Amino acid sequence: MIKKALIKNIAEELEIDICRITDGSDLKKYREILKERKRSGLWPQPFTESNIDRLSKPSLHFKGLKSIIVIAINYNNSDKTNKYLSTYLSQKDYHIYLREVMEKMVAKIKAEINQDFKAKIFVDAAPFLEKALAERAGVGFIAKNSLLINPDFGSYIFLGEIFTDLEIEKDEALDLDCGECTLCLEHCEGDALTAPYQLEADKCIAYLTQKKGIIPPAERKKMGAHIWGCDSCQLICPYNKAKPINTKEELQYFDKDIEYFLKLRRKDPPEELKTTAIYWRGSRILIRNALIAAANLEKKEYFDLIKAKLADNSSLIRYYAAWSLSEIDYDKALGILKKHLAKETNEKVRAEIKRIILKHD
Ligand code: SF4
Ligand code: SF4
Questions:
Q1: Where is each DUF1730 domain found (predicted)?
Q2: Would residue 202 show up in a list of annotated catalytic residues for this protein?
């Protein structure tokens, strides 16, 4: 049995903020919660695995699993964030950063105990209940906003796991919860927190900003200024007040405003964007979201920039450019859109422009 202090000392050397250990047993409590949600139609949700066994049996992801080292790294950039991008957006993709840190950790453990062992690293990639494992390991508790909260760092933490066949002394879960507080439910911008611990993902703005394709008008309005993610349920949380600010160079905030995204060249995105955790969705969706934000904020100064997007090769961009122009300045947009309609070939874009024109006639 490996002493957990040995593992934690290595974590500290690598500037890992939290390191706790749990075993590889099934997540029985969460299995029951998922079954209940399935019965009430609240699960599965977008972007989630639907197989309860794969979610709640960590041993299915690693043969010979004995222990799981759960690490958490503080990403608190709440002193610098803007209204467009979630605070978790760091300059380097956190998936890559955490993976590199955990690779170093495995190498150091091997050197320290002078013994080879099997290990597999996960960062937000495997379909198991990552927050439930972290809760069982004592990294924090699952809160009413469905995020994991640590008493020292709040919910501004990235999680990563090392599955291993090493037997390591384990930690206990924390005895902590939200108490009587319901602030996040009252301030949820998307009305997605419909009950404590119950996030209806398809209503959540963070999800809407990642959703592909056409977003219905009511949901566009709900997105407000958000180009990627939403932090309202974190910003309001008392556990996040006066918490240490992240000082890691790689995890500094990717501080870009709406103009940056409206001016993105789809075929030639900047290198700095490619290293972030939002690039996987592609520039088209980021531009779409910027067009929605410009419409919601009635950004008249970008009218001409948006008008130029009616010539974009992507019908999705033309669709949102048309809508955005009409929201920013309807009278000015009307003539432009009527003229554009004569040459527009995409049926969805044509239908949207006709819908906009009909509002006037
Ligand atoms: S991210 Fe925004 S919309 Fe989603 S639950 Fe939190 S406050 Fe609500
Ligand atoms: S705002 Fe209150 S209820 Fe919501 S997660 Fe924070 S402590 Fe829990």
A1: 57-124
A2: no
- Name the pTM for this structure: 0.92
Question: For 47-85, how does the pLDDT look when each residue is reduced to its tens digit (9 = 90+)?
Answer: 666 788 888 999 999 999 999 999 999 999 999 889 999
Distance 186 CA to ligand 2 centre (A): 10
Ligand nearest to the CA of 237: 2
What does the angle CA 88 – CA 89 – CA 93 come to, to the nearest 5 degrees? 110
Nearest CA to ligand 2 atom 6: 237
Measured in Å, residue 111 CA sits from the centre of ligand 1 at 43
180: number of Cβ within 10 Å: 5
Angstrom distances, CA of residue 114 to CA of 108, 111, 157, 163? 10, 5, 31, 19
The finding on whether 184 has its CB within 6 A of some atom of ligand 2 is: yes
Domain ranges for the chain: 4-164, 256-360
